[in-house]
Amino acid sequence: MHTEAIDPPGVQWLRVSPKYVTVRLVEWAFGNVLMLAVLSLPLVFVLLGWWRWPPLWLAITVPAVMLVLAVWRLVLIPRQVRAIGYAERDDDLLIRRGIFFQRTMVVPYGRMQYVDVAVGPVERSLGLCTLKLHTASAGTNAHLPGLPAAEGARLREQLSARGEARLAGL
Amino acid sequence: MSLESNATESLPGTAVDGDWKRVHPASPFVRGWVALAAVAYFVGRDAFERMLQGRDFLDPNLNGRVPWLLAGGGILLLLTVSGFILSWYFTRYQVAEGYVRVNTGFLFKQQRQARLDRVQAIDIVQPLLARIFGLAELKFEVADAGESAVRLAYLPLAQAKQLRATILARAAGVVSEPGKEEEIPEAPEHVVLSVPPARLIGSLVLSEQTVGILIGAAVVVATSVLFENSAIFLALIPGLLGIGAAYWSSFNKGYNFTAAISPDGIRLRYGLLDTQAQTLPPGRIQALMVTQPPIWRLFGWYRMHVNVAGYGVSASTEGAARTMLLPVGMKSDVLRMMSLVLPDPGVEDPERVFTAGLDGLAPAAPESALADGFTTTPRRARLLAPLGWRRNGFFATKTALLIRSGRWWHTLVLVPHQRTQSMALHQGPVARRFGVADLVLHTTAGPVSPRVFQASVEQAVELFDQQAARAREARKRQTSEQWLAQVAPQAPEVAAAAQPVEPDQPVEPAQSVEPAQPEQPQTSHQQEDRHHG
Fold first, then answer.
1. Which residues in B lie closer than 8 A to residue A92 (C-beta atoms)?
2. Residue among B503, B533, B505 nearest B519 (CA)
3. Cα separation of B388 and B376, whole Å?
4. Between A51 and which of A45, A124, B146, B352 could a Cys-Cys bridge form, CB atoms 3.0 to 4.6 Å apart?
5. Res. A15 pLDDT band, cuts 50 70 90
6. Size of interface A-B (CB pairs under 8 A)
7. Please, are residues B280 and B298 in contact by the beta-carbon 8 Å criterion?
8. 3-class DSSP state for residue B436?
9. Which of A92, A137, A144 to mutate to test the interface with B (most CBs of B within 10 A)?
């Protein structure tokens, strides 16, 4: 597995389930298809001759740009999912994500206040779950989507146990 | 004295721990005076206006209805007052066995308890009316970044102070045997600095706010000249009132600002009409920020903000004032406050390092980039940050990470290693092109958000790794929430007396950082001497 420039050297990343791509696709479809439909309405109205105002070029350009962006996002999804990684180290958990805008985060076990496991309807049907770590800081936006349910449960138990062993005050 | 103890017999008792006590009986009236005033206003306004107009005291149309109205008003008043009395009667608090407990409410009862050793800060607040009556509100903050965990409003001032001393002593781990409960004396204080009113006024006049107002005023004048319409000025009146109120509230909050140090922690007192005394126990400051707007540089002024877990973020002036560690101060004041927050700076020459952090600028020449110790943005990224690249930098001491940024708005952020929550490296496409990355340190909610801007990738990754290790080491050293227990098991006074060697010793990594804390008065003395010398 290749590691990016900002990743600490010598880390063996674990990847999330490839099935998470499906979850992202469903989310993408919900968001973008709806948005495209709404933005295409003026075009339909103009073509039907109901509306006069948006000139035809504008009515075409706006949904077209949106379509290009949506397709771009769609193409990126598998790579984005592959870019999500996590690594359990002795004292902290590393989480990375992103291709263009990369982020590598380290959450010390002793700093974890609680661990959430959330499962949405699509995730449930695929046997996946999302793990969220919370520290005393609101800036810790550490969530790991697309974990297989068993791995999520294992990680939750593991993190709680390690957190307890290394518990530190604020 | 005997009279006083008699008086407090039935009221909330002063001394003994473990009793259930009530707040001062006048407190609902002080808290709810607005409601009373509203009742009085509705009843009295009409009659008063009539009297002014020289007419009958009562409306002639009301003939015969007067008794009803009076009865209605009386019942309203009675209900309000009895509500007050009931709420007072059912509000009780207790400090015992390491907990503070508060029971409130008579229809919907609420029982709340908070662990004393989880205290993040204790404030004693005196709004103007409470101050007239010699009362004070005690706010007990825990780390939930929301409203105060426990608010006791109102106690007589002396009792509030006594309670604060008790809570802080218990939280620090002072145990008194159950048999002999003696009063815990207030910890001795040592005033470190105060802000003269003239400087406060000057700082307000020269603040960014003023610059904004001047620009706004210039725009208005220009438009009114351009359109030859003087009515625009009328639209300014509400704005002016708002601005005046903002200045007044800053002045009211910052007036007579005094910082003192005691074994309980840092004490901040301020306020003109409403006074507030904050106590931040040792090690409760999560992050610290020193800023200097461009105009203030002429006078060498700085201001300091802190993140404290209990205070959270709040847009109100009161909230903003609570996270203010120093409204305006000279560099010596800043250094002194830093020495209180970080008793052991973890470097040989803290003054030079902090000065470099406050005002330093890396040399423009490519080779000597490490001149003042701060690792700055590499020269190759100077197009990405044309102004800030010589300024943006970081410096890790043994105990804290210093982050400086801002070519015009000088900013220095300090995060003690054991307070780092989590960290993240960020890199966007442009930053990757220049081979730089940002390091974000996550801390509790507050005005300070530490971020190392545009460090070179290798240095950022190295810092990321080292910082994780340093935070881990620092956390291992800090084992207990009770700050006295982190030191030798001896009284703070003894520790302070037996301490003349400490500051010049280089601190070994294995040795605890914490021992310097209860001896802060001592350290601050020495720090002062160093500045004068």
1. 468, 472
2. B503
3. 9
4. A45
5. very high
6. 99
7. no
8. strand
9. A137
Question: Residue A44's closest CA among A54, A33, A35, A34?
Answer: A54
The answer to whether B465 contacts chain A (CB < 8 Å) is yes
Tokens at residue B423, please? 């960290």
The tokens for B515 are 């021992």
* pLDDT on residue A52: 84
Q: What is the ipTM of this complex?
A: 0.88
Among B309, B460, B480, the residue with its CB nearest the CB of A136 is B309
Of B510, B509, B514, B507, the residue nearest B486 (C-alpha): B514
DSSP assigned state of B143: T
CB contact under 8 A, B422 and A170: no
- Which of the 8 DSSP states describes residue B283? T
A105 CB neighbours in chain B (<8 A) are 422-425
Residue of B nearest to A97 (CA): B426
Tell me the residues of chain B between 499 and 528 that have a Cβ less than 8 Å away from chain A: none
Task: Tell me the two tokens of residue B443.
Answer: 């801390």
The C-alpha R_g of chain A, in whole angstroms, comes to 21
- Of B315, B268, B334, B335, residue with least CA distance to B445: B315
What are B181-240's pLDDT values in tens digits? 556 777 788 899 999 999 999 999 998 888 888 898 888 888 888 887 777 777 778 888
> pLDDT tens-digit profile of B139-194?
988 887 567 778 888 899 999 998 998 888 888 877 665 544 556 777 788 899 99
Report how far residue B162's alpha carbon sits from residue B156's, in angstroms, rounded to the nearest whole number: 10
User: What is each CA distance from B308 to B98, B447, B450, B480, in whole angstroms?
Assistant: 22, 10, 14, 18
* Residue in B422, B425, B449 closest to A6 by CB: B425
Q: Report whether A26 contacts A122 (CB < 8 A).
A: yes
Distance CA B343, CA B285 (A): 12
Q: What is the pLDDT of residues A102-115, one digit of tens each?
A: 999 999 888 888 88
Helix/strand/coil (H/E/C) assignment for every residue in chain A = CCCCCCCCCCCCCEECCCCHHHHHHHHHHHHHHHHHHHHHHHHHHHHHCCCCCCCHHHHHHHHHHHHHHHHHHHHHHHHHHHHCEEEECCCEEEEEECCCCEEEEEEEHHHCCEEEEECCHHHHHHCEEEEEEECCCCCCCEEEEEEEHHHHHHHHHHHHHHHHHCCCCC
> Chain-wide mean pLDDT for chain B?
79
Is the Cβ of B143 closer than 8 Å to some Cβ of chain A?
yes
B313, B415, B421, B473: best to mutate for the A interface, most A CBs within 10 A? B421
With an 8 Å Cβ cutoff, are B422 and A169 in contact?
no
Contact B19/B13 with Cβ under 8 angstroms?
A: yes
> Is the pLDDT score of B499 beyond 60?
no
User: From B482, which residue of chain A is nearest by alpha-carbon distance?
Assistant: A169
**Which residues of chain A are within 8 Å of residue B173 when distances are taken between CB atoms?**
none
In whole angstroms, how far apart are CA A71 and each of A24, A84, B410?
13, 21, 44
Which tokens in the block code for residue B102?
A: 């508060």
**What is the C-alpha separation between B393 and B374, in angstroms, rounded?**
6
State the pLDDT at residue B55. 65
Q: Does B442 touch chain A (CB under 8 A)?
A: yes
Residue A118: the pLDDT is 92
Give the pLDDT mean for B404-422. Answer: 91
Test B442 with A140 for CB contact under 8 angstroms.
yes
* Residue in B142, B280, B422, B480 to test binding to A, most A beta-carbons within 10 Å: B422
